[in-house]
Amino acid sequence: MAWSPDDMADLVEAVSRAPSVHNSRPWELTLHGRAAVLRENRVELLRHDPGGRDQRISCGTALTNLELAVRGLGWRAQVDLHAGSGEVSGSVTAGARAEPSSRELRWARAMPQRHSYRQRFDPTPLPERLRRVVRDATRGARTGARWIGSDAEALSTARMLGYAARVFRANADYSRELAGWRSPVGEELRRVSGGLHGLSAVGLAAADSDLPDDDAVAERIREEAVLLIGTRGDRPDDHVRAGQAVERAWLAATSAGLAASVTTQPLHLGVVRVALAKRLGTPLIPQVLMRFGYPPGSV
Ligand SMILES: Cc1cc2nc3c(=O)[nH]c(=O)nc-3n(C[C@H](O)[C@H](O)[C@H](O)COP(=O)(O)O)c2cc1C
């Protein structure tokens, strides 16, 4: 048995909906037999991501969408990760017939609705129940997450982000890359970045960015629900797993009516990853920061 043309269209569509760094979609999808293979495609290595961390996280988000699409078609989905010394790949193989769970269906339906929301949220705080749902969606054998909770944690996080933003702002090569990013997403990011505040602004710092001070960022972190997603190791396959966790959390949030955006740039600095984990007292290696909230007018 092989994928039908309709199955193939669903799988291609699901993968194309996945979030990726600068919307670069750094993967290649091949469909054969009952398998769908997603290979990292590093043709255009981003200067700010020399180790390819963001590209592998992006492959992870696409792998989650691929898995959900196979489940949505009513097949069991066997997911395998392959990470050697070169590029990483992941495969989803369809097994026996098996109806998707109601959660899988909700997440699959949320794929076309999910998008990055970088502006302010409605001030209504997230209820504890939803915080649990979103955090639990990140759980895997080597992944997990924790909310940035107390005032002290918000301030420590803000200081780390401020430090990273100043390092990136002083990096002329990085700023040139952001400025030269001529895709529609790059245009959009440049257009909105002047109006961004708090975490979103710090996550996209370039030479001309007007950085908010640490106290203002800390206040924004306290107002918004900020989740740190991390992994138990820092191998290439861990980056893919982080991406899988990001997309599960994002789809869980979207299906509950929440909006979100992600930031990884500050966590590219090893010193920031180590210091943040230490200050938050978490054994996880920080990979991604996500902010969640209600879109204005939705509550
Ligand atoms: C690994 C990764 C890193 C990202 N980093 C940022 C970031 O630092 N700031 C930001 O605003 N968006 C970031 N994004 C979001 C992408 O820009 C976004 O997913 C992409 O442009 C597609 O848009 P969409 O999410 O609305 O579908 C990141 C996404 C991924 C997967």
TrEMBL record:
* Protein name in the entry: NAD(P)H nitroreductase
Annotated SUPFAM superfamilies: FMN-dependent nitroreductase-like (SSF55469)
Q: Provide the leader sequence positions.
A: none
Q: Which residues form the Nitroreductase domain?
A: 225-294
